[in-house]
């Protein structure tokens, strides 16, 4: 079924236009934020979650502004905000809002998943609208979220419903980038690994929701630390955009992610968090200048590698 | 290894003393909260998240007060708070605080799980303490949380660390109670189902952390909708407390959960959410009276069934 899938078609058009398939992961850590930002907020609010939350928001806005030349997709990881309490989550909310204000796209990295009625609450919270009497309000307004498949299809269905109703997207965890990912995901069920089984599910959902650009609102998280698997999974899920973590700090490079793309350079979003956010700690430069350079370099490396492979 | 495991030993002592292995799930839904509570807050705050959050907190406190005679463990499901935005999450926080104020135990039903560094942030957020300069602050102070095993052991380890440091506990999703749970969890890896494999992991972690009462801080979520599996899993995880959802609204009854207990009536916590919270909608009584009766009945049914089986 081909049809309207505005978010995905817009995303793909923009990836081509801006030659940028990169995602900047916004994983704020208090101990890694520049001292000048922290100093100002500690003076105003003391050693409180408020001081942290204000520092995070200041830092994130600085990063977003700095890298907009080479990146327009941002992925805040909500765990790093939850650890700073309600104020931290407010910083998550405001970060998502700021990305939208400046014309970016937000992937809420929430990895939620629960029984149907609970998944529905999560889906409403992050992709949909909450109804209160005659009003509809958005709790956390992401374009995409990441979701965990352990509970099966009725954990996923409420998210797919919100994708259809509100023109949103999801990335289902298929193969993650962490060292122990194989303990469950690599086990064989008959002749098929578990992550391949999940990939088959994702493909099944994706073919029902594929837009004009050939891609679906149902994507997959596929770690860059396993390049040979990327290739096989690319074949298994031809309509799904891959969200590929693990570039930079987790060990993956441009050569390792190239298999995630189709022959037109579409179909993959490559995430880098620490390698961009905290580049300044290696170079000693202003954090915005360092982040901008790191994002530009990452984008250039991937574009170069895609051109090399296309020849 | 037997040793100090104060939370678990305290929990078990109290289950015996109060003859109560029941958990009240606090899953607030705006459309099911009594009109009188909503009316008051709509008048004060309009159709806003603030009005919802205040109503939820009022309702939850009313439920907690009403059922304390037969229940002392409460399980707020965070999804139902996230859907009401930052104000909703503040109601989650205050609900956890209130349970502690009145001497109850909190299971934060968050089902988180991510790569190591991210799981660490979640573990700090919900079980540990966040460090800001010279201060340590608690973001969301639960006694237990639920966690998802799809990413393997390095997703679990940070939670286990916080359990040890702060005397907390976890329930790992093993076999869930939803209709589609079998799609992944029931698949065979060799001769073993996936959920049995996860049960083996849980047992491995539990034997390292077992306290004087014979139970560990590492428990398991095992759905009551599958009683024959409960028995097998009880044998596989003798040191783990089972958190059993699915009682009441999801179809399970006292007969279905009895296999989750050991011969001393320990080893299981049986959750009921909707059947207690919204009992008033069936009986037409005041919501607190109806909840109190429903909790008392549930407790009595389980105690009776345990006595019947013990004979």
From TrEMBL, chains A, B:
SUPFAM superfamilies, per the entry: Ribulose-phoshate binding barrel
Gene3D superfamilies: Aldolase class I
Domain Orotidine 5'-phosphate decarboxylase: 21-289
InterPro entries given in the database record: Aldolase_TIM (IPR013785), OMPdecase_type-2 (IPR011995), OMPdeCOase_dom (IPR001754), RibuloseP-bd_barrel (IPR011060)
EC number: 4.1.1.23
Gene Ontology molecular function terms on file: orotidine-5'-phosphate decarboxylase activity
Catalytic activity: orotidine 5'-phosphate + H(+) = UMP + CO2
Lyase listed as a keyword: yes
Record bears the keyword Lyase: yes
Positions annotated as active site in the UniProt record: 111 (proton donor)
Pathway: Pyrimidine metabolism; UMP biosynthesis via de novo pathway; UMP from orotate: step 2/2
Family listed: Belongs to the OMP decarboxylase family. Type 2 subfamily.
UniProt protein name: Orotidine 5'-phosphate decarboxylase
Lineage of producing organism: Bacteria, Bacillati, Bacillota, Clostridia, Eubacteriales
């Amino acid at each position: 079924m081909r049809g309207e899938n505005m978010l995905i078609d817009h995303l793909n058009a923009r990836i081509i236009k801006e030659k940028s398939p990169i995602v900047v992961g916004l994983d704020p850590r208090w101990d890694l934020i520049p001292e000048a930002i922290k100093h100002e907020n500690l003076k105003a609010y003391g050693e409180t979650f408020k001081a942290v939350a204000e520092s995070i928001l200041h830092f994130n806005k600085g990063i977003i502004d700095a890298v907009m030349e080479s990146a327009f997709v941002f992925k805040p990881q909500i765990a790093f905000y939850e650890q700073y309490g309600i104020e931290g989550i407010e910083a998550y909310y405001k970060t998502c809002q700021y990305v939208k204000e400046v014309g970016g796209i937000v992937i809420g990295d929430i990895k939620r998943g629960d029984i149907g009625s609970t998944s529905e609450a999560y889906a409403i919270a992050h992709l949909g609208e909450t109804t209160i009497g005659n009003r509809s309000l958005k709790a956390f307004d992401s374009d995409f979220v990441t979701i965990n498949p352990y509970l099966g299809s009725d954990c996923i269905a409420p998210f797919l419903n919100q994708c259809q109703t509100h023109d949103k997207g999801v990335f289902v965890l298929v193969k993650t980038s962490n060292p122990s990912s194989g303990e469950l995901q690599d086990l064989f069920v008959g002749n098929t690994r578990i992550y391949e089984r999940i990939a088959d599910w994702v493909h099944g959902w994706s073919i029902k929701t594929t837009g004009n650009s050939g891609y679906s609102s149902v994507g997959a998280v596929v770690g860059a630390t396993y390049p040979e698997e990327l290739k096989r999974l690319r074949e298994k899920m031809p309509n799904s955009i891959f969200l590929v973590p693990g570039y930079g700090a987790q060990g993956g490079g441009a050569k390792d992610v190239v298999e995630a793309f189709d022959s037109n350079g579409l179909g993959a979003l490559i995430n880098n968090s620490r390698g961009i956010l905290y580049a300044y700690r290696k170079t000693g430069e202003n954090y915005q200048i360092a982040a901008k350079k790191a994002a530009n370099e990452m984008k250039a490396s991937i574009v170069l590698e895609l051109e090399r492979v296309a020849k």
